# Entry
Amino acid sequence: MSSPRLEIDLRKIHHNARILVERLAIHGISVTGITKATLGSPEIATVLLDAGVSALGDSRIENIERMRKAGVHTQILLIRSPMLSQVEQVVMHADISFNTELDIINALSAAALKSGRTHGIVLMVELGDLREGIMPEDVESTVRKILELPNIKFKGIGTNLACRSGVTPNAKNMDKLSTLASSIDTTFGFEMEVVSGGNSGNFEWAFSGVDTRRINNLRFGESILLGLDPLNRKPIDGLHIDAFKLIAEVIEAKVKPSQPWGEIAQTAFGPSQPITNQGNISQVLLALGEQDTDPNGLTSPPGVEILGASSDHLILDANNNLSVGDEIAFQMNYSALVRAMTSPFIVKVMSE
# Structure
């Protein structure tokens, strides 16, 4: 079988999604299955829907188009603020988009009016992580303006935490979002459909026993795909952590000194790292590199140590365990998974 390749176990992804959907339903929270790490894979999207997610979400309109062309007709959310240059595509392929800028929402309204469609808006609120979101004190006036726009349906509010700055979702900031939601409901005389409290980083908060109040949706990607809590990278009880495996092939296996010799300068990826002299080692090269994945996000099998990487090579200390032509499997973190799915040089092999 060709390598490098990403082996994807759809059955394990289905299991993870189903367990999380069932657990969150007890708390009155629906799950939007996030497909961005898989480049909008129609196969994985179908698995998520079969497992019970209420909708799909992706950060790239191109991925949403891919799913639509493959026949995925469920509700799909664009979870990154749309670009002005893509509003026509957004209205055509996404049912709802997350927004923070009135100029963009106005453009979406014009595009929706022109195409005879109605487009849903979730207004993102800044609660401390300092990525996207309008300030809480500006929400009411912004909602008022959104409600005046033709062919736009105001769906609700949301927030994003644990991404740029690592601000953790907790009772305080989730209560803030709930209080804001209740205030909007009261002010405008309707109950919003969506109060989206965040992403996989909300896992610990959701199951901490707190009153989830108005939060009725979470957007899960990493926790479904990798079975991990993103805040601490610990496995979630009852979930598979090996739904994805990255396989690479040995292209060189030689005994070499562990320490380089000669004058040392920067590498293609920045300053060279200090290396401890361990004498001669069984050094192995794999046909896998920075262009394919995040080497720092790979976990090697016992007895194999990752020493470094360049654009096209991963360097290992294999302790005499590997020969040319052998294959080795790695587990991945989220960063490694995203880059491996994006690489055209890695074959994706799905199994049920």
Remarks:
- The chain has two domains: 10-235, 244-351.
